[in-house]
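Table S2 (continued). Query chain:
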Amino acid sequence: MEYLLIALVIIITVAVIAYPLFTTPRAKSLSAPANPLDDLLAQRTAVYDAIRDLDFDFSLGKLSQTDYDALREKYKARAAQLLQQIDAARGDDGAHLDEQIEAQVAQMRRAKPDDIEREVARLRAQKKSPAPRRAPKVAPATGFCAKCGTPRRADDKFCRKCGNKF
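Corresponding output:
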């Protein structure tokens, strides 16, 4: 009876451990992104990181000037291409930005000059109102450290430079 129970425990343990090896994963396929725009944004981030790494490697002297220039131009061209693809995927021709700018300009034109002058006066008064800060009083030097020659103040118990006790 003991042998049957031990064999059953071993079979169950092996089955639990081996189960993931014989089943197909349910995860999404990595080759097909859910949204092409997300894929383009990820590629843009990767290109920006590559440019940053390239600049860092060049500053450390790991790359020659010719290699650096060639790789940087390659990455810049790829980044420009990705930005164009992102704009095309978004359907972004810049028209909405122009509309926002025009709306802000119109709002500023509608503002009365008195409102602007009042705001400027308020900001100037706010700038003048804080009292000027005074520097804290420092005790005058009363001697020098015997060890390093740093000037000593009356309230110092230790040298500020070397830590020698006075």
